[in-house]
Amino acid sequence: MMTMTDTKKINLILLEYLIYIFPISFIIGNFAINISIVLIIVLSIYPLNKDIFYFEDRKIFYLISLFFLCLILSTIFQLYSSGYYSDWIKSLVFLRYFFLLLIIKTVIYKKILNINFFLISSLIASVFVAGDIFVQYIFGKNIIGYPPVTSSGIKYFSGLFNHELIAGGFILMFSTIGIFSIFSILKTEKKLIYLFLFAILIIFFSFSLILAGNRMPVLLFLLFLVTLGLIYKKKERIYFITFAILTTLLLTIIIIKSETLSYRVLNFYTGIPKPSLVLKEINKEYPNLEKYKNTGKQFHNLKEFESTENFTYIPYISGHISIFITSIDIFKDKPLYGNGIKSFRNNCSNKTYLPNRVCENHPHNYVMEILNDTGIIGLFLIYSLVIYLMFSNYRDYIRNDSLKPLISNWIYLAVILSIFINFFPFKSTGSFFSTFNSAFIFMILGISIGLNELKFKNRDK
Question: For the chain, what is the mean pLDDT?
Answer without folding.
Answer: 88
